[in-house]
Amino acid sequence: MATTKLSRNASIDELYTAARGGNRRALGRLLTLVERGGRDAETIGELANPDAGAAHIVGITGAPGAGKSTLTGRLVVHLAGAGRRPAVLAVDPSSPLTGGAILGDRIRMSDTTEDLTVAPEVGDRTFIRSMATRGHSGGLALAVPLAVRLFDAMGYDPVIIETVGVGQVEVDVVAAADTAVVVMTPGMGDAVQANKAGLLEVADVFVVNKADRPGANDVRRDLDLMLDLSHLTGQDTTDGGDGYRPPIVMCSALEGTGEADVWAAVEAHLISLDERGQRLRRRHHRIRTEVRARMSQALANRIDEAMDSDVGRELVAHVTDGALSPTGASAKLLDALLGPQLEPGLDPRSEPRS
Amino acid sequence: MATTKLSRNASIDELYTAARGGNRRALGRLLTLVERGGRDAETIGELANPDAGAAHIVGITGAPGAGKSTLTGRLVVHLAGAGRRPAVLAVDPSSPLTGGAILGDRIRMSDTTEDLTVAPEVGDRTFIRSMATRGHSGGLALAVPLAVRLFDAMGYDPVIIETVGVGQVEVDVVAAADTAVVVMTPGMGDAVQANKAGLLEVADVFVVNKADRPGANDVRRDLDLMLDLSHLTGQDTTDGGDGYRPPIVMCSALEGTGEADVWAAVEAHLISLDERGQRLRRRHHRIRTEVRARMSQALANRIDEAMDSDVGRELVAHVTDGALSPTGASAKLLDALLGPQLEPGLDPRSEPRS
User: Fold this and answer.
1) Is residue A126 part of a domain?
2) Which of A102-106, A335-339, B69-73, B140-144 has the lowest mean pLDDT?
3) Which of A12, A186, B57, B121 has the fewest other C-beta atoms within 10 Å?
């Protein structure tokens, strides 16, 4: 697989150097390789690692239809106009049945090396990339950190991850950012749903979008109440529980009002992170999440190998014949993979093993 | 944890024997232990394994609001009236943001040992249990096969798994059944979404519910077209591509019309499975799915152990300091866990290791 990639007219090293020099097409090709995963993606991550670390990483999530894409677009124009170089990684949801609806409002870039630019005057200062997850959230958990690191290494700042908080993986992605923005809208019971989804614990900034609509103040009130409650119960763990309270910013991305307030709140949170000595803690959490995801992927491949091995086929056949239980087959395969030491809670065999 | 369970007035063995003897409360308590997972759940699975294997396992899925619960209820009454002993395992979706809406139309049974009965005259022949996944789909993948096996061992037949096909895990659960029923409704573009979700490849029987509504025949036509296409392109892999074409049954669960036709199609599919020698193939696929899920869970626990070990903390600290990349840290931790042999595609180190 590596060879096919490298047999293109430019090597990964050459692509990386060109991208660092401002070649947007080279960056687009690197992002495509990152999205495809495998060895090339890891190589790119290794190249980018020393050059990365400066960018403010912002996660934006919310339910479908909350207007995240519109808000993100407004923020990008606002930031580029202010001399910043924002990059956006727009993550398509991994949930298949909801995928269709959300893909509709975005150009899917999964198989092209071109980038999706906004207004011409800011296009050269920004890079907006949509990343498809093709249903397997594992790929998302692996590719997003590499893509963010690549943007970071290219000098883009902030790097905005936009995703739909329909799944735990998406929530985790946003939770691993420096600043997590949760977008709500009136009339969807979003505040209650966000509470269910655990977004209250994740959010550093709440945005009530479509604030011109009736019910916007109700959403704000509901959020305030739940934040009071979560502070009383000490649920807010993302900031170490040292008293930072997520602000609630009203805006109307469609009308183009409020995005400056949103960004001001995002910047204020980063300053607060530094003041509270929490920024390193966030980075540490982000790295733990990524390392865990990479280990999970590697072990998932090991499981597939074990299942397809002769031993695996034989054990599954024994279960099919009723001679063995699925739990027993799993335990035996794990022994073959890891050696015979399982956690007690997962080892179905009551008698100790020699 | 095992001790807390066993310190109840009845041991798992006693509960199992009582449940086999028809004690519904004992079965409810066993199902609660299965849902909680861990060693007790595995023990129950080991007990049930020799007694199970006879039941017709039916998966019913579809988008939220498709009327699955109503249809399932109709089927249960129909089956119990015909002298069968149907059991239903209703799986709450794992996707947090959609969870609230769907939980609304069902009594959540996660923390009670009582069972949800339907009409009194059939209640003693049926067992309907709702299983909450509490957000972690891993728990679902582990608990559902055990609960199904337990119902099977208790002599319930068919065992119906009802779930919302919003996530890959839910789709996998249904795909692992003997007969997979996909419920559609008019006016939701369900046929197209089902295609996106890969349900066309999974479905053995299509049900167009709310068939009295306008557009029901459009859904049927769309499905027919896509089935023609999938047969032309040989996409239908669930039955080994030997020409079984999923029927499309119109019904109105709310009106109570068509459930008999739905069940007739489900039975016809099982007969077709036997005729084509495919039933064992389904069972084999179901077992592979379960064994893989159990291995994944065990290895996920191993990853957490490794991350929380001194080595894990040290490596993450090195990455935070920039001395090491996340990929490198993951590789080193995997070496510690599995010994130094990673797949080439996931080993970031270019130089060979001694």
Assistant:
1) yes
2) A102-106
3) B121
Minimal CA–CA distance to B27: which of B184, B149, B181, B204? B149
For chain B, the farthest-separated pair of C-alpha atoms sits apart, in whole angstroms, at 72
> Among B44, B169, B222, B327, which would you mutate to test the A interface (most chain A Cβ atoms within 10 Å of its Cβ)?
B327
The conformational region for residue A337 under phi > 0 = left, psi -120 to 50 = alpha, else beta, is alpha
**If you ran DSSP here, which 8-state letter would residue A100 be given?**
H
Q: Complex ipTM, two decimals? A: 0.76
pLDDT value for A226: 82
Of B315, B336, B340, nearest to B325 (Cα)?
B315
Listed residues A276, A309, A330: the one ending a domain:
A276
- Residue B31, SS3 per DSSP: helix
Neighbours of A105 (CB within 10 A): 12
Of B94, B98, B333, the CB nearest to A295: B333
Partner residues linked to A82 by β-bridges: none
Domain span holding position A315: 291-338
Residue B139 near residue B41, CB atoms below 8 Å = no
Q: How many alpha carbons fall within 13 Å on the CB side of residue A130?
A: 22
**B133 and B206 housed in the same domain:** yes
**B180, B78 in Cβ contact below 8 A?**
no
Residue A39: list chain B partners with CB under 8 A: 344-348
Mutate to test the interface with A, among B137, B289, B295 (most CBs of A within 10 A): B295
Other beta carbons within 10 angstroms of residue B239's beta carbon come to: 19
The owner of tokens 């495509």 is A32
Residue B161 in any domain: the answer is yes
Per residue in B208-266, pLDDT (tens digit) is 999 998 889 988 998 888 888 776 555 444 445 567 889 999 999 888 899 999 999 99
Helix axes A326-338, A279-308, angle to 10 degrees: 110
Indicate whether A207 and A326 sit together in one domain: no
Structural domain contains residue B212: yes
